[in-house]
Amino acid sequence: MALFSGKRHVQSRLDDTHNMCYQAVNASGYMDQLLFANYIRNEVFPAITEQKNVIFVDGHFSHVNCLLLVKYCKTFFKDTGKTVEVFCLPTGQTNHLQPFDVSVFEGIKKKWHDYLES
Known about the structure:
This protein is α/β, with parallel strands linked by helices and 118 residues long. The protein has a domain at 48-117. The protein has five helices and four strands, in the order ββαβαβααα. The chain is globular and about 50 Å long.
């Protein structure tokens, strides 16, 4: 997902992504519960093939107690018969429970930050 601050969705931002990137826009440019729930509904649910599924999320405020996502999961089950459980990892434990986030994405985040600063 690419999240931008603003009021308008600018299609040209996705021109080189070959429909492989989900774009969202809100006033702050930070993830919120509505964007998170809609991302799961629009991108993750259509890719689900198994009957029983778990989505692991970190303790970010947009993931915790997201009642809209709970509603979407119930509707998805009613429509497809496929269950989706959302499991929230403890806050502050991402580097221990998600080593990929540290070992791989740390370098990507640094390069992206350097690019934005140049």
